[in-house]
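lol ok so funny story. i was supposed to be doing the assay writeup but got distracted and ended up predicting the structure for this chain instead. priorities right. anyway since i did it might as well share w the group, maybe its usefull for someone
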Amino acid sequence: MRAVLTAEGAFKIVTRKETPPNSETSATARDFYRSADRAASMIYLSVEPTIRTVISSLPENEIDDPARVWEFLRQKYDSASLKSG
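and the output, tada:
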């Protein structure tokens, strides 16, 4: 998944290394939000249906935030996270 997001130029959004621009009406903002929407869609469509149900349990304002969904899934399913608690 990381490779796909990187190829789409969206992995930095998922890791919050790229943040929304100050002006939400600029072309830069449109590009950012378009990439964020693609990232959220790619993550959602790349997981099993049972995990989609889990993602859908997030608050509505978080479901479309690819960084939030990525972190949520990492905390819930990442093997390193599971080992540490």
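Residues 2-84 form one domain. The chain has one domain: 2-84.
back to the writeup now i swear
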